[in-house]
TrEMBL record:
It comes from Limnohabitans parvus II-B4. The lineage of its organism: Bacteria, Pseudomonadati, Pseudomonadota, Betaproteobacteria, Burkholderiales. This is CoA transferase. InterPro entries: CoA-transferase_III_domain, CoA-Trfase_fam_III, CoA-Trfase_III_dom3_sf, CoA-Trfase_III_dom_1_sf. Keywords: Transferase. SUPFAM superfamilies: CoA-transferase family III (CaiB/BaiF). It comes from the Bacteria. GO terms for molecular function: CoA-transferase activity.
Amino acid sequence: MNTKSNTDQNASPQRQGPLTDLKVIEVCSTIAGPACARLLADFGADVIKIEPPDGDPVRQMGQHVGDVSLYAASILRNKRSIALDLKSEQGRALAFELMVQADIVVENNRPGVMERLGLGYEALTARNPGLVMVRISGFGQDGPYAERPGYGAICEAVGGVRHMTGDPDRPPARVALATTDYLSSVYAAFGAMAAIHSRAQTGQGQVVDVALYEAAFTQMEPVVPAHDKLGVVPMREGSNLPSMAPNSSYPTRDGAWVLIAANSQPIWKRLVSLMQQPELLTDPRFETIQARGLPEHMRAIDAIVSDWSRGHEAAQLLALLHKAQVPSTLIYTIADIFKDPHFQARQMLQQVPHAQLGHTTQAGVVPRLSATPGGIYRSGPNLGADSFDVLQRDLQLSPERVQALVASGAVVLPSSSV
């Protein structure tokens, strides 16, 4: 029986960053939870991902090269993977022992699942009072909707974000990215660090309760007081920034789109000077930020800027705007990003070694710390790649005991793909 970990397949420098003293156990699937744990791993935390025998569903998402999930190679990076059958008593016992050794447990199951497995916060903190448990769910750990399943798209709708997304004459749209999941993952990682900071003062851990709908709702910050005091129910603005113009995507002669953001008065004046239309400065519809933000005035100014932008090719237009110090950019595709020198200079496109593919290119580490930066030291491991390593090194089990656990089905050793 092959009981060797394939950790060496992703050989690379050791963990780095300010969190190298923290051990994290991840019991998560799909996006928000794994993204939170990936943030912690990027800054040095030792993250052990507990996966079911058939793996995290994220391994089936996104594009693949053969059997290799490119998404998993990135969102599971810097982690160790152990495959445990939590339906088995032995699997749950192993998970429990790993968790009570940890500083942080990250889970994104429905409320009550961890308790039914015997892995709830109360059970774990009876052995480890300093444990921080990060709980990510659609609607939080309590309240009338707590039991509802809640993917990011559902929670965007409940949080008011979907109503605000798209064009006003069309049904609510969505961004074709997991924006709410990633926003929630940042809140979860921030909460984990706040709880660890508190533990340093009190010695006690706590629960960090992150609800996806609440993370989505935080984007409605300016809308909440406006509705309370004025009864405003804002409508979709398309590519515009609500109550701010000109701030939109404008067409060019060669079929491209350029985003121009003339938000402040000085920038507006510079744009008007560049357009050589000084009469706009004395037009009462456009004299102030508030005036330009009225819906009918926004439509008027956008039409004027669009007529002007259509007279230029994108490269020429951008050169003029940059010289005039008007914030603007081409609307990038991913192909544009791969060619852009700023992304390269800021190390936002990093080639990470990969056992099967040679390397994958992944988004770099955010944020950048000047003294204790994070890093990417290994690609997302194969399912169960580190099962043997974790059981021997972290739980100090003998090879014979590991083999018995594998034979029982409680533990799964490496598969051949990510």
